Amino acid sequence: MLRRVLQHNKKFVEQRKDQGDNQWISGHAQKEVMIFTCMDTRLVDLVEPAMGFKRGDIKILKNAGNTIRENCDEIIRCISLGAITMGIKEVFVVGHKDCGMCKLTEDELREKMLSRGISEEVIRGVNLKEWAGLVTDEAENIKKAVDKIHDSPFIPKDVIVHGLIMDPYSAMLEVIVDGNQGNPSVHIVPMGA
Questions:
Q1: What's the pTM value of the predicted model, to 2 decimals?
Q2: 9: Cα within 13 Å, side-chain hemisphere
Q3: How many Å apart are CA 82 and CA 50, to the nearest integer?
């Protein structure tokens, strides 16, 4: 696969150069927006255009299930640095329907880990549901992420945090939390509203 990637990259670079698309672009978000979403492949080249953003407009973070796990500060760290050093003023937590992290069970995960050589001792040493960030309700997961971002002492209080859910097929967005309404934990918009 590496050889194919490098062959494609060589052609891609030449094409960008020929089209004049290889010009300098700022590493800072032009729209002062950050999106935190899931790493699901169906969302690649879907989330940003569905929201009206193009290359260079926003910062984007991804992880499995767009979850912010307990005692795992990486997402908060990135959002905080984006706000403090790069001027991010709004964060969109964008979950999606039909998320694999909502379908996966602890037993299935345990079996998959064992089949890939992860030892039973290592698996027993963690709470798999928390470690993996398994989700039981996609909308509730979005709300929890919004609350954790909003309530973090590392996030400036003027940063607005929204929660949306996307259909990975139609790209339709629904508002779960409208951060413009003040305290996000009390302003949940019902699905389909």
A1: 0.87
A2: 6
A3: 22
What is the spatial distance between Cα 181 and Cα 146, in angstroms, rounded to a whole number? Answer: 13
Binding-site residues for Zn(2+) sit at: 38, 40, 96, 99
With bands split at pLDDT 50, 70 and 90, how would you rate the model's confidence at 182?
low
CA-CA-CA-CA dihedral for 71, 82, 155, 166, to nearest 10: -70
Name the binding residues: 38, 40, 96, 99
Largest CA distance in the chain: 55
pLDDT of 72-121, one tens digit each?
899 999 999 999 999 999 999 999 999 999 999 999 999 999 999 999 99
Place of tokens 């991804």: 62
* Class of the domain covering 23-99+135-186: alpha beta
Where do the domains of the chain lie?
A: 23-99+135-186
